[in-house]
Amino acid sequence: MVSNPVHGLPFLPGTSFKDATKAAFHRSQTLGYRNGYAVVRHPTVGIGGERLQVNQLSQAELDELANKAPVLTYGQPKQAPPAEFIPAHVAFDKKVLKFDAYFQEDVPMSTEEHYRIRQVNIYYYLEDDSMSVVEPVVENSGILQGKLIKRQRLTKNDQGDHYHWKDLNRGINITIYGKTFRIVDCDRFTQVFLESQGIELNPPEKMALDPYTELRKQPLRKYVTPSDFDQLKQFLTFDKQVLRFYAIWDDTDSMFGECRTYIIHYYLMDDTVEIREVHERNDGRDPFPLLMNRQRMPKVLVENAKNFPQCVLEISDQEVLEWYTAKDFIVGKPLTILGRTFFIYDCDSFTRQYYKEKFGISDLPRIDVSKKEPPPVKPELPPYNGYGLVEDSAQNCFVLIPKAPKKDVIKMLVNDNKVLRYLAALESPIPEDKDRRFVFSYFLASDMISIFEPPVRNSGIIGGKYLGRTKVAKPSSTAENPIYYGPTDFFIGAVIEVFGHRFVILDTDNYVLKYMESNAAQYSREALLSIQNRVQKQEGPAPELEKEKKQEIENVVTQLPDYPKLSEQGTACPGSGSTFTGTKGRPWIMDQELSKQTKEDPGVQELEALIDTIQKQLQDHPCKDNICEAFQIYDKEASGYIDKEMFFKICDSLNLPIDDSLIKELIRLCPHREDKINYYHFVRAFSK
């Protein structure tokens, strides 16, 4: 039950009264959670939520009251609570003892030093009695430095006892893993800590120094006599004065070499040389400004410096006998620098003025080093592989995307649907091929040839298309420059070689005769003779047909210019009736006209030269006049050809006053056909 005392009355029984309106009699909560832990809270209100009229004490005050010894009580006083325990890893956290020490290391492989002194720092960690040894890193020492012994507890004897901070002091030696370290000093914290623990410290010692390192610190002794040359005066006199030369480096003799231009700067203030590259737009090179940095260039080295590793070490004054100076740079002379030969072809105006005043050289003309561009190399076509036409295959070598070769459109329109047809026989040693006949079709619009073999029953050979329409090159031409067969190459008796097969033209159609009549100037002498002989050999029952064929030959001849009769020149064979006497009083007219058309043929020129030689020899030795009749007697067909045997018998019977070698050469140059010789040129050579 809770009662409220009346103000001014003591809190005694009978002086308190109940509150009849009070309905809550619960106690306040004294337990709570903070950061996941249960904690006790002191109540601030009483039963029913009434405020307690007491002073709240803090935890420190409560602890003080608990530890306060009573003075007004009787009996034994209470024992005070023990002090709070602090572990070592908390008490000595981040407290490290530092000692300065060194150890000596033997150097057996060096002649300059026998031992080496290495300075280290020894750290002792109080929290776990561990130690570490660290050597300060020296730049470019060449020694692996840093942490020599990582942090750990180190044994001091064979019994397994570990080093303690009580074992460490200044001026003592400690052995760690076979190495003896001499402790010479410690830092201020270590000194205070050891003295606070009652340890008497030894006096500090001086750190030992490495003898080789101290030797390197001493300056090198020079045994060079000082020069009287005043470099300061040279610097003040020639400051900012630079000689500029224009040079080229011609490296075209080596593989992928080229001719490149450079600018050479010679600084008068310190006799240094600098070589700069001259870059052009789109030259394909990285824009490096310098080929050689500014430095003095040696001209003559000492004899012992030939094997000196110049690519690794710098060249000092002891290895050089003579340096490059301004007098070595002359326009028009080569200069070798670092293995490259530079040709100086020009300089600037200041350099010309300097050479004129200093050396008396006034003539330094510019030298033209420009090279003429070589003529463009004509691209060579690869060898012909035999497929398709050469012109069509060559288009793949000219452009990336080949196009069809251009055609003569005017020629195609003029000669459209014009075809020359010939009958031919296959020249073959096989007996079955002798009776085979072929029809050659020559297309004037495209200069192509097609071959058709008429089928023959029971011949055992399948006829039909023998060769499709294509261009056929002559066997004497090359694959790179082919010479194709033309319409003038087809005549009776001509031999046409088509891809290794030889064909002999036997006959033509009437359209060929009309074409030859309209283009007689294009055909050779032999072609016109073959047509003339063909017309004469044909025998028909209708005299009108024979008269028409003779008229065709007459039309061919009438297109040729008039010539004097051979009887007027004393070379005709009157009354012989030979086909060589011609028509309309123009003997040999067809051959003489055609001989002019073939002046460029070397065989015809050789034949004409031989005939002139024979006729000159006959001026002093007259010849018989019946030579032409002697050959025509045995030429019953009037074809102009007789057998070889009969030809040689006639020559022996004539007793010609000419050297036998000339006669044999003349017979060789005369046209031959099927073991027969044309005696036309032979008779012409001995005619008066």
TrEMBL record:
Main location: cytoplasm
SUPFAM superfamilies, sorted: EF-hand (SSF47473)
Compartments reported by the entry: Cytoplasm, Cytoskeleton, Flagellum axoneme; Cytoplasm, Cytoskeleton, Microtubule organizing center, Centrosome; Cytoplasm, Cytoskeleton, Spindle pole
Key words of the record: Cell projection, Cilium, Cytoplasm, Cytoskeleton, Flagellum, Repeat
Hydrolase recorded as keyword: no
Residue ranges of every copy of the DM10 domain listed in the record: 93-198, 239-359, 416-520
UniProt GO molecular function: alpha-tubulin binding; calcium ion binding
KW Repeat (keyword) present: yes
Protein name: EF-hand domain-containing protein 1
Organism per entry: Callorhinus ursinus
